[in-house]
Write a structure and sequence with these properties.
Blueprint: E1 5-10, H1 15-26, E2 30-35, E3 50-51, H2 56-61, H3 75-85, E4 89-93, H4 97-109, E5 112-116, H5 127-139, E6 144-148, E7 160-162, E8 181-186, H6 196-206, E9 212-218, H7 225-236, E10 243-247, H8 251-260, E11 263-266, H9 276-282, E12 287-290, E13 306-308, H10 313-324, H11 327-344, H12 347-360
Parallel strand pairs: 1-2, 1-4, 2-3, 4-5, 5-6, 6-7, 8-9, 8-11, 9-10, 11-12, 12-13
């Protein structure tokens, strides 16, 4: 039996999708990706997204915010692209109009619908989401199969499945180089919730005792007040020789940055589902993450990473001092993190799991 034709219709080809899409292709699926724009640092080596842009109606409505924040593509172009590919499965993300419109088109074309969510299922659905799910199942006769990286593998609800974020196979640890220890933080450079300034404060307190440099890496489409505040703080405190800010690094180059780091820190707050610390773990770099992160449950505190309170800079400082001051601790946590990734986040395993789900629900064949 031929593999399924899978169409992703999403805002952009986010790096947290790359390994999963590559594994689906390796598993025999034919994959296409429709995006509304190309984001910084994307890797298109496996799939080249078709960029449809945004409808002029969407642009008029964007100031409303909420589910319209990411907009939606021109309907005529979207219908044509979907009819041309004739997918068995359409994968969207979230319940905004940018997802609902292609789901309606897909349902009318007879495709199976898969919703990728990035919220914990500990949070109950609101009335609107329950109504949408009911409408697709009862009116359009196409129930929405919901998958989430923040859910158990086996959920009692028949339409929900846990598919965690996945990473490529972990290479062997590398020999660390001489010179200052390197701390890496990866997160969008324009967002205050990434807590860049808190980490800068902690680094300043650590510097008198440890020879260390810090690198902030992340996507940046426009300089925000937060970005300016970060750059000004680095300059005002005389830290330009110790702290670098690097924007829009291609995803293909990120593995080298993760590998070069001695410690990875993601001290963000209100983080629905971070992916970057998994990439750091996959190359053997020990990680410090906050409890206020949906995917922190992927690791076990003090076994394969360190978990800190995002509202308590002292806990972050203690964790950073611990790892910077103990090479053996860094090695042990890094190796444990690699084993976790290899065991729990293998792309091939989860691609097969995803295809089994949609096959069981009659998506193709």
């Amino acid at each position: 039996m031929a593999g399924p034709k899978i169409l992703f219709v999403q805002w952009r080809f986010h790096p947290n999708q790359h390994a999963f899409v590559a594994a689906l292709v390796d598993a025999g699926a034919t994959v296409r990706f429709i995006a509304r724009h190309i984001g910084p640092g994307e890797d298109h080596s496996q799939v080249q997204p078709m960029v449809l842009g945004r409808s002029w109606i969407s642009d008029l409505l964007v100031p409303v915010g909420g589910p319209l924040h990411f907009g939606f593509p021109p309907a005529r172009a979207l219908i044509g692209a979907m009819e041309s590919f004739a997918p068995d499965i359409v994968v969207v993300r979230g319940y905004g109009l940018g997802s609902l419109i292609p789901m309606v088109i897909a349902a009318m074309q007879g495709a199976r619908l898969v919703m990728q969510e990035q919220k914990s299922w500990d949070r109950p659905d609101g009335v609107l989401i329950r109504l949408i799910n009911w409408g697709f199942a009862r009116v359009l006769k196409r129930p929405i199969i919901r998958v989430s990286p923040i859910a158990p593998e086996d959920d009692p609800a028949a339409d929900r499945y846990g598919i965690p974020f996945v990473c490529g196979s972990a290479p062997a640890p590398v020999q660390r180089r001489d010179g200052p220890l390197q701390v890496l933080h990866v997160g969008k450079l324009g967002q205050p919730r990434k807590n860049h300034l808190q980490l800068l404060d902690v680094l300043e307190r650590v510097l008198p005792d440890v020879d260390v440099v810090l690198r902030f890496v992340g996507g940046l489409t426009e300089v925000t007040p937060h970005t300016r505040a970060l750059l000004e703080a680095i300059a005002d405190r005389g830290l330009t020789e110790r702290v670098a800010v690097v924007a829009n690094v291609p995803h293909a180059r990120m593995r080298t940055l993760y590998r070069d780091a001695d410690v990875f820190v993601l001290n963000s707050h209100d983080e629905p589902a971070a992916y970057s610390f998994l990439e750091a773990m996959s190359v053997g770099t020990p990680v410090i993450v906050t409890a206020d992160n949906g995917t922190t449950r992927y690791l076990t505190d003090r076994e394969d990473g360190l978990v800190v309170d995002p509202a308590d800079p002292a806990s972050l400082e203690a964790a950073l001092r611990r790892l910077l001051g103990d090479a053996e601790d860094r090695r042990a946590l890094g190796e444990a993190g690699q084993r976790t990734i290899a065991r729990e986040h293998d792309p091939d395993h989860w691609a097969r799991r995803f295809l089994a789900i949609v096959e069981e629900t009659g998506a193709w064949g």
